[in-house]
Structure formats: C-alpha cells, structure tokens
Amino acid sequence: MSDYKIIFTGPVGAGKTTAITAISDTPPVSTDEAASDMTRSRKAGTTVAMDYGVLQLEGGERIHLYGTPGQERFDFMWEILTAGGLGLVLLIDNSRADPFRDLHFFLDAFRGFIAEQGVVIGVTRTDLGGPGLDAYHHELAGRDLNPAVFEVDARERDDVRLLVKALLYSLDPGLGA
Amino acid sequence: MKPAPARTPLKVAAYGFAPRLAQTLRLFFQGPCGGRCQLVPEEQAELVLVDIDSPEGAGRWRLTDPRNPDRPLVAVALRRPEPAPPWFLSKPIGSQAFLELLDRLEPRLRDTSASALTAPSAATTAPPDGSRGKSRSFRQAARGARTAKAARTLEAASFRHFIRSVPDADPGDARQRGHSTYDPRRHLQGHLQQACARAAASGKAQRLRGPWRDILIFPDTGEVIADLDEARLRSMTVIPVDGYGQVLLSELAAEEAEALRGASAGTPERQETFLWKVALWSSRGRLPGDTAWETPVRLRHWPNLTRLVLTPHALQLAALWVRRRCTPLEAAAALQLPRPAVFAFYSAALAVGLMEFEPGNVPASQPARPSGRSLARGLLGRILGRLRGA
C-alpha cells in the first residue's frame, strides 16, 4: 500500500477538519479537543494531534489526507507529516485579524515542502469580510509564488475537490492528456 | 402503468437520502421502473432527487442547481412544501407517480435541439401541478440562492451543447479560422466590457440598456445587477446585439444609482463572475476576432474557479497558462484538448483581464516537479479520477 499523502494546513478554525471530512471516503479520525486559551475564540474544539482521512483509489490504493494541528505549538509534527506528501492544501481564514500573517507563517513553515512539491490556497470565510483574492495574489507575488487561490467553503465538497484537483494539475497540467 | 420499453437509462442522483434508502431506490429503478433510469453519482446525473425531509436536502429544493442550472431537481417529501417546488414527488414514492414524472421530464432532458439554449418555456418552468401563481416567487428565491452561492459549473455535456456547432477549424487555413472567431463588440459581452471599463475609470455606476432589461454596474461594490433570468441572459449573449436595436450606456448619478439598486428585481453578482460567464457564453468555443493566433499568452494568476462557471478542462488550462506562455493552439496541442474548450476558456479569461501578452512582472509559477523525483502521472491521474467520480 502506498503512503502518499495530501497535507491540509492552516490556522485554527480555517476549516481543515471540515475539508478533510468533505472529501474523505471514510469517517475521518479527528482528535479535536475542547479549545483552550488562544484558540477558544475561534472554535469550540481544536485539533491537537492531526486529522486523518482517506481517498480510496481503484485497485485498493489509498491517498491519506492529513490535517496538521492548528496550534503552532505542535509544529514539530509538520515535518513528519509532510514526508511522502504530494502537495499542500493551505486554508486561510479570511476573517482573522491578519490573514496575511497567517499566510506567510504557513508558507514559511512549509517553504521546503512547497518548493519540492506544490501548494494551493483556499481562502475561507470570505463572506465575513477581509481582503480580496487580488490582495492574496499580490502577497504571493512578493514571494515569487503563483499558486491557485480559490475562495472555499470547507463544508462544500465541490469546493474542496476543486482545490485538490487544482493541486494535482499544478503538479502536472498534462494529467488529463 | 407499465415501464417504457428499453432505452438509454436516465441518470438519476439521490441527494440527502440515507444510504439504505439510496440502495432501495437503486432496486426500485431496476425493478418497478424496468431499468428506465439508473442511480449515479450527482456529477453524472441528468436529474437529481432531493430528500427535502433530510437535513442535507432541506434547503436544496429551493435552488436551481447552481452548478448545472438546466438540470431539474425533484423534491421528495412526505408533504408538499410551500412554495411548491417545480418538480415534486410525495413519499412513499410509487412507481406510477415516478414513471409519470419521468414521462414529463424525459422529453425535456433528451432534447438536444437548439431550443434548449433559449429561455425555457412556461411549460418547463411552471410547477407541473398547475400552481403557476407560485412559480415567480419560486424563481426569484432560486435566483437569489443561486447568486448567493455564485459558483457556476457547466458540466461537460452541457458545455458541448454550447460549442458543438463550432467547427474545429484548420488553424492553418485563414478562411477556416474565421469560423472559429467572433466579435465581442457585436455581442452583449463587448458592451458589458465597455460599461465595466467606464465604471472603473469614472468610479460611477453605469446603466446598460438594450433589448435586455437594464444591466447596472456598480464600481463601489464591484457588482452587476441584471434584471433578467439566467436563461434569458444566456440567450442574449448568443445573439449579436447590433441586429436588434440600440444599446445605450449611461452614467448614473449617485442618487439615481441607489434608487435603481434598491428597485431592481435582479440579484447582485460579482462583476468578474458575470463578465466571465457572459464571455464564455458569447464565445461558444470561439476566439475573439482580433486574437493574434501566433502570440503566446499566459495567465496573470489562477481564476477563482470555485466561484466562476467552470468549463471542462479549465483547471488544466489554468495550470498550464500560469506555468508557461503559449498560444491557444499550443495549449490545445500540449494538453490534447478540443480547441473550442481552449478558446472558450481563453475568451473568458481575456474578458476579465487575466491574460497577459507581454513579458511583465508575473511571478514565476510554482516550480516544475523535478523529473527525477516526480511521481508517476498514473497515480495523480487516479486521484483525479477518484475526485471526479466521488
């Protein structure tokens, strides 16, 4: 069995658990616990270990979907998680005080992985205000990056699937050929 | 009632049904319905049954499916809701009632004539039970919900329907190239682009008046309000406007703009979303006539494809054109895609200002995967297939 992975990351409450749930073939294993201190204002529970889901492929092959813990104090796990990863799905909560700080934090944290593989960015909670996608593209251009950036409702399976498909085509535009 | 004789089964999806009920439906289709329809994933379905008694389906019947507005949604419930949905089946679903519903729906679904491109007739939009008085409020609710969602998808079959009349001309033959081009200025698209440009330049709202009702452009919110439904808008994009009357573009004073914003029956849409779909529908698989076929282009950045009409192969084309500069014909050849699909995407991206012609300050795209360490294309393709079919 392969151990290929797609990694979902982003700040607390950005929708990683929801997104994995939206596309996983099995009920995702989630390790949400009651949130404390800084995360309490964002969501009732937060992921302290990781989320895990599976995409079943024909022939029994499986793609593992891993969600990183949303709290920075668990970042020692991220390097372990990304080993064997196909690419990164970065979810940014647009309603947070400074979403670009989050954006740069995660792009820095996964810099090596992104350079080796690829990244797509899903911007969530855009209905609550915050910067537009053009501002995200501007921020990314400053880093010499031009990944797919979509508005995403993490509860919508089609949105999440489109984001993951964009990641795959980013890795190889000729996939469908 | 006896099932109809053998024919291509109608593809039906079940939304909001518990797995056990969905399995029962499958058996129902195979047995009492005589194989006249088959249960398929929603992405492949020609019509969708929605269990509106379920939490998932509760709000769904109010919507014309935003990702496939022409596909009927059939509400299934113990009691008929108010306002009445256009298509309804009461529980428990009986074979006779179901087959009668198919009799009404199937001619419409199987209709591949050009008339399907035009606004639906009253017969297809009015509630089948004759409660026509309720249809307007339903359509208004549906339109509002559609716009709130804003995502638009044309499934492959629907898209082919748009572009099938466009010959895949020999690009080496200048005369044949003419068949693969259109002039946006002769269509609603050109007038709309002009209005949007004026709104952006002046910072003032614009009104575009023509054979359609008013189209209002508000630069302060980046929104467009069109007082016409989706089907009529689609029809308007196809027909050159210079053939049927005058088009007037006028600038609105602030008070007038606010008054019209409040009075319009239309629902605000983002300018980019609106312009993208108008260009796509106008193009119908053709390139703007002034396109320099030999000029390589690239995308400034990915379109926000979760909130735009998503055409087949849009993801591939975006991925390619963000990564490297090439002509539409080169893109079609590189990805082995039908040219009309490439031309339609190009036209829409060009209309919203995403195409870049000269080398500029576009950031380097994501690094190509090192070939020595690249994953087998087969694996990525299998994941993609799984996501398509999920």
From TrEMBL, chain A:
Keywords: GTP-binding, Hydrolase, Nucleotide-binding. It holds the Pfam family ATP_bind_1. Transmembrane segments: none annotated. One of its GO terms (molecular function) is GTP binding. InterPro entries: Gliding_Motility_GTPase, Gpn, P-loop_NTPase. It comes from the Bacteria. Belongs to the GPN-loop GTPase family. This is GTP-binding protein. It comes from Thioalbus denitrificans.
